[in-house]
Amino acid sequence: APTAGKPAADTTGDVPDKPAKAVSLNILDVAGDLQLTQGMIDEFVKQHSDVISKVTYSKAPAPELSGKIKAQQNANRVDIDLVLTGTDGLSAGTQQGLWNELLPKYADRLPGMKDYLPPAQKMQELAGNSGVTVTYYPSGPLLEYLPAKVAKPPANADELLAYAKANKGKVMYARPSNSGPGRTFLMGLPYILGDKDPKDPINGWDKTWAYLKELNQYVDYYPSGTADTMKALANGSSNIIVSTTGWDINPRVLGTVPKEAAITTLKGFHWVTDAHYAVVPKGVSTDKQAAILQLLQFMLTPEQQAKAYDKGYFYPGPAIKGVELSQAPQESQDAIKDFGRAEYDKLIADNPTEVPLDAKSLVAAFDKWDREVGGSKVKSS
Amino acid sequence: MSGFDQLRLEGVGRRFGTADALADLDLTIERGEFIALLGPSGCGKSTALNCLAGLLPLTAGSIWQDDQRIDTLPPEKRGFGMVFQNYALFPHLTVRDNIAFGLRMRRLPKDEVRRRTEAAIEMVRLAEHASKLPGQLSGGQQQRVAIARATVLEPSLVLMDEPLSNLDAKLRLEMRTEIRRLHQSLGLTTVYVTHDQEEALSMADRLVVMRLGRVQQIGTPEEVHTKPATWHVADFMGYRNLLPVSATRVEGDAVTVPLGETTVNGVAQGEMNAGDEVVAAVRPEDVRLGSADVAGLKGRIEVVEYQGRELAVEVALPDGVRLHARTDRKVEPGEQVAITITPGRLLVYPSGDPADRPAAELATAGLAV
Amino acid sequence: MSGFDQLRLEGVGRRFGTADALADLDLTIERGEFIALLGPSGCGKSTALNCLAGLLPLTAGSIWQDDQRIDTLPPEKRGFGMVFQNYALFPHLTVRDNIAFGLRMRRLPKDEVRRRTEAAIEMVRLAEHASKLPGQLSGGQQQRVAIARATVLEPSLVLMDEPLSNLDAKLRLEMRTEIRRLHQSLGLTTVYVTHDQEEALSMADRLVVMRLGRVQQIGTPEEVHTKPATWHVADFMGYRNLLPVSATRVEGDAVTVPLGETTVNGVAQGEMNAGDEVVAAVRPEDVRLGSADVAGLKGRIEVVEYQGRELAVEVALPDGVRLHARTDRKVEPGEQVAITITPGRLLVYPSGDPADRPAAELATAGLAV
Amino acid sequence: MIFFFVNLAGVVGSVLVSSFGRRWFDTWLPSGFTTDWYGDAWREFGLLHVITVTLIASALVVVLSVLIGAPAAYVLARQNFPGKRLVYLTFLLPILMPPITYGIPLATVLYKFGFAGHLSGVVLANLVPSVPFVILTMTPFIEQVDPRIESAARMLGAGTRAIFLKILTPLLVPGLLASAILVLVRTVGMFELTFLTAGPDSQTLVVALYYSMSAAGIRAQQSVDAMAIIYTSMMLVLLVVALRFVNPTQLVARVKEEPE
Amino acid sequence: MSTTTSSGPANSGPANSGPANSGPAGSGPAGSGPAGSGLAGSGQALNWRHRLAERGVDRRLWLLLPATVFVLVLFIYPFLYGLSLSFQPMNGGGVLANYSKFFSDAYQRDTIATTLKIALPAALLNVLAAVPIAFRMRGRFRGKRLMTTLLVVPITLGTVLTAQGLLNFLGPTGWFNRVLMGLHLTEGPVRLTNNYWGVFFSLIITGFPFAFLLVLSYLSGIDPTLERAAATLGASRSQRFRRITLPLLAPGLATTFLLTFVLAFSVFPSAVLVGNPAGSTRVISLAAYQAAYEQYDYSYASAIAMIMGAVELVVVAIVLVWRARLYTGSTGGKG
Ligand SMILES: Nc1ncnc2c1ncn2[C@@H]1O[C@H](COP(=O)(O)OP(=O)(O)OP(=O)(O)O)[C@@H](O)[C@H]1O
Ligand SMILES: Nc1ncnc2c1ncn2[C@@H]1O[C@H](COP(=O)(O)OP(=O)(O)OP(=O)(O)O)[C@@H](O)[C@H]1O
Ligand SMILES: [Mg+2]
Ligand SMILES: [Mg+2]
């Protein structure tokens, strides 16, 4: 029933250490992060039922999120207490001033943040003052292929181009704006090709754009989701696709891609990292904020972070230092033993990491890609 | 719902676009009267009825039920009953449910609904079709359902739009009597639209004869039948022989007009003088055939039609004019016959406008093919 | 498309579910004939017509056009014209386009289409409504469009389902003549459904009288009118007085039957013996009123209806039987009158089945309310 | 038509097979079958609750939009009046305008009055395109009903309510059914407005489905297929139930049956 | 429930309350009846009412109220908000900046043509295919119910299943291409997804049953006697269809076309899922979506959506103008 008469709780004042009485939280996940963190949250509720009595989860795609929160805030009736999001949703909200500033105000309540892995720390800096990094992974860009079909995988950008030329339609990546691996590939290329300014897609990516346009001649089409590229790889209509650590391991666990698929990297590649954040919309009561802060700190402890290994979904996953696979749940350990790759440890250790483009530049890059690479297909076909 | 003493229509009119389908209808209906609206096809009878029922909003005039103005009431508030020209049965309801519909709308007890419905079904002799849908009935059966549906409610005013036109002659006669009987025994007030003069004459207390959306004459059956107000009314009332002629002599209401190389006497139905253009009107039944050797009006039989007891004949007069006549003698086309006109039955009307005259029936226009 | 010499219906029947709407119809129609199907509402007339037109598949029998079997042909291949009981006008076409429809279907030259269409519009007097849509016409106007639409094609066989039932008396008479004229001048063959005996008598060469889906009598108008084959036909043909009695005396075809405490003489219409249960039938027109002082049949006037030239009266005989009679004298209810029956006009029918007898008209069942 | 059916069967079949497939690479059929995908989808989204919410919400939307829309359609079909075109346009706009233009302000309004965040918000928001939709589909149906039948009912004392209930509704069953089904399909499939106004307890199936399909993260193809099958099965059940009770052509056909 | 009916006959509208009161009161004192002076008082109101009657204004208009109020409250305000938003460009620069930005950018402008190129043929095909099939489904025959159900079932598929199914079925290694290749009709797989055709097929699959259902229902409202009458006038099956059924069906077809067109025009998920969203199926709703949810420029998104609505409105207006010229009365089916 409508609750028009509900007295508005305090939303802007000081946040107490502990809520006056146990609160119930609505958590909205737009990044698929619950896959990694729901276990942590449930654990917290179990242990601290005096703080959080109940959690309801809902999931939604990211783009529409800010509209919804905006509508709620305009009406002074925010019912989403915690949002788990990727960089895109985070910065979209920041741009529109949707989020509460948690830092540095409450930094002391989140001591776990001091233990971030260095690249996770960089991701945290990207997040500004509203988001708290909860999970992290180095992402890609990786190339994935079936050894049975590709005897000698390309080792550098030129070889990839040559392979694509020789095997028309057999190299595939998804439309960057619809695909994590696709955008990682896009953002990773400037490093591989040695472009002028890898952070400026409009003016600094001459080589990248030239390369993509040339590659485009040998690409049949760009699916609108990573899953389609995985399927193409699995059913043989494609030989080489772009990927990330998570997209390499998890689909093989799930069985959408044959277990024997292999990965390789292009010479000179940098990891373009990725992370998930927790943010609190403005308009959430101080009581709930208190509970959330406690929850976040709980999530940043090593025991809990180990759950982020999952089944390689966000491999490795933990954002803080010193979390070992052996701490992870058994199921998780088994999956990664079977489908994980020993070479990842070395690749992660040996290659530089870069933060992804900020939201604005990324959108500009997507737009340019759509216009000049993806869109040009119309004219040519 | 309850009865009324008088229903007054004052200047009632209905316009469709630029055409007046009904204009200036003034009529007072007394409680218990049986009024027939009579007139040729398209003269506005159905329009008048719909206005009275409230189904067509008026574009002029007002309607009063005693002191209450009712032309602003919606039809369902007027409490009138109506039988529609094209039945308008509810196609999704059985005969029984069609008839019970109005009773149910009045929220009568189930028992009473059932009882009255069955009685009405009995009355229109549809007991064995009671569970059929209208789509499965013959045209006549449908019309009987429509009659039963309206009268079962015993409304204070019943409007009927040619309710018998699809019935066979026998049933029509019976239903006529039945409707009259209902009218009397239930104390109904009835407005009855028909194009059948015989029906109107035999059923109604008063006739309203219409033409082109306007009233031509209001009167008792006898008045309308024996003294039509205009030659148009005469035309419609079965004065099938309408002759545009010049009056030869006028004396009081005795007029002499020329006919078939001789002259005949008629009764003047208005002001007229010798030499005026007039219209002489007489019914075929008042034009009888004798044998040819009698002096006077003569003609040659052109067409003979069997009509049961009598023969209907068309006779060509020497001057080419055709007369419709009746005879009970066996005659053949081509025969020469003498013609007598029943005295006092030839009516003579002044005819003002030259455009407003009947065409002399010299040769009926056929379909040019 | 072209004409035929003979059209034969052999054992034609149509069943709806378990009910025979039409059974065992045998009929041979000669080229140029005008056949009327006559019978009470629901007797299967429309069904027969639809079967002939090909709109209803037969469930028994066959139809032959000369040597060709046609009951398997679709309607549009039979080349017949039809006027539907409920008009079935195309609601989206103007009057003109409705009428021109068939001509256009035949791909006639534009000029001819226009000329014939206009002529047909003229014939049915709808010139000023030619551009209206059917929904804007009165009921009678619609029916005229339907007639024009079917006859403009000059089809080899025209089927008409009560085409005149919605017209006013005057127009009905005129259209009757017109249809007859068309029939003759175009050399049409016509099957005409009507429930109006007068119409059937005056128009048709032969009548087919039906009852409950079965043919009762086929004959010329005169045969059917003066010698109805059964008392049912008599009933339908206007023998409104039907009296279930026992024959007192039978001599050849002269029968004496009891009536109102005396006896009257009638003509036997079948095998019968003294003492048999019979049905005596006589038309109201053959029951005339004299004054009460003449000896013989006597009664008391119960109901008087004005009917124009004559009065229709109901007379109660001393034994309670009611007779419908006619008079041209002014009479009042309650008056005692003498009654004469035109000699030779009282027909007496054997009545086999006791269930199959008319109800003595003692008191007409009213609507119990 | 056969071609259409075969291909349709192919389309549906491939998803159905896939949703039960363990692994399906370059072969005719998957290499093994399992129902795990359903179990996963079921658990992940708490589908029982979601389906219940969906059913309730869509049923409410259908009923309300018919109740609000049908009378308006009636007037538009029956009557000519000044300003009719303007009214018509007003009813057309919500169908023409993509929810992007009004979704967020609409959600704000609903949140302001305390409707959004509950089922009622979802219902109200979905009514916005549904009501005009009913109006638009119903108008021609009403035009087909002979007004004299209505007149007859009026003369028998039926008020507007009775006419709608006793006369028009049964005669319009095919139309009502058609537009109800279409509204249902649209509502169940309307992601945007639903998402903007749904609360945590009032998520509908389509939100879950959209999520599984287009949200970030890795998701097995088969699990999306399974979700889609669940979605379709639910719609199918609704449709079959609807058709069970009324066949779109049955009523009128019974009234004027073509012989044969 | 109560909202719809109570506002009908219960409240007598303003058109009616005036004269209803003044009528009897005016005639009371005169005694000689309403022809007296009493009538003059209410004459004004009367004329007014009669004039309204001539134009078809009466109390039935109250039935419009619930829907109108509803749309005004829940749609018009948000819509106007969106409209005004589109005139307040995020990056400044004049009231019409968003619109000129759209039209000066060929990449954006072309989305209109792209959308029309998909939506018009798809809607047209759906309607045209639905007519003959629905026509055949009219008579009575065995299995009719099953056939109808089968034809309507795809309506339940939903965009996602359709998209997934098309990708699976028509994809390079899907059953369709397997059959084609198995029959040696083509050498390599035929590309039917991730391009124009993928979107087109998905619109057919989701749109056809929709069109079919509507057309079938409209068709059932046409009196079959009319066709029989045409048959006796010598019209063949096809002529009857063309001259009688089709014209009577046309208003319904126009509505059906509009609805399928509108649905096709806002095709968004399938344009992304089975189309080529960067190129040949970059439909206008995608442009709006990108503006709103990738660039978070709601103002620009509103402007694009307004343009989208305007384009639809043009098509709709053309169809409606055409429809208004058709016959739209009773088709006799229920009389
Ligand atoms: N909706 C309408 N639009 C335009 N003209 C109409 C409309 N309804 C009736 N008319 C015209 O008004 C006139 C009167 O029609 P009405 O139906 O009252 O005739 P009627 O006397 O009942 O005739 P009939 O005996 O043939 O039924 C006719 O000329 C008819 O064409
Ligand atoms: N489709 C049908 N289903 C069931 N019964 C039907 C159907 N059509 C006609 N009937 C029945 O068949 C019988 C004959 O009907 P038909 O229409 O031929 O009568 P009719 O002689 O033309 O009567 P009327 O003069 O009243 O038009 C009627 O009792 C009718 O109820
Ligand atoms: Mg009329
Ligand atoms: Mg009939």
UniProtKB/TrEMBL annotation, chains B, C:
GO terms for molecular function: ATP binding. SMART domains: AAA. The keyword Acetylation does not apply. Residues 7-237 form the ABC transporter domain. The keyword Nucleotide-binding applies. Coiled coil: none annotated. Keywords: ATP-binding, Nucleotide-binding, Transport. This is ABC transporter ATP-binding protein. It comes from Kribbella koreensis. The lineage of its organism: Bacteria, Bacillati, Actinomycetota, Actinomycetes, Propionibacteriales.
Automatic annotation (TrEMBL), chain D:
The chain crosses the membrane at residues 45-74, 86-111, 123-142, 163-185, 228-246. The keyword Transmembrane applies. It is a multi-pass membrane protein. PROSITE patterns: ABC_TM1 (PS50928). Keywords: Cell inner membrane, Cell membrane, Membrane, Transmembrane, Transmembrane helix, Transport. InterPro entries: MetI-like, MetI-like_sf. Residues 51-242 form the ABC transmembrane type-1 domain. Pfam families: BPD_transp_1. It is found in: Cell inner membrane; Cell membrane. Belongs to the binding-protein-dependent transport system permease family. PANTHER family: INNER MEMBRANE ABC TRANSPORTER PERMEASE PROTEIN YDCV. This is ABC transporter permease subunit. It comes from Kribbella koreensis.
From TrEMBL, chain E:
CDD domains: TM_PBP2 (cd06261). Residues 1-39 are annotated as: Disordered. The chain crosses the membrane at residues 61-80, 118-137, 149-176, 196-219, 246-268, 300-322. Residues 112-319 form the ABC transmembrane type-1 domain. It is found in: Cell membrane. SUPFAM superfamilies: MetI-like (SSF161098). It comes from the Bacteria. InterPro entries: MetI-like, MetI-like_sf. PROSITE patterns: ABC_TM1. Residues 25-39 have a biased composition (Gly residues). Keywords: Cell membrane, Membrane, Transmembrane, Transmembrane helix, Transport. Belongs to the binding-protein-dependent transport system permease family. CysTW subfamily. This is Sugar ABC transporter permease. It comes from Kribbella koreensis.
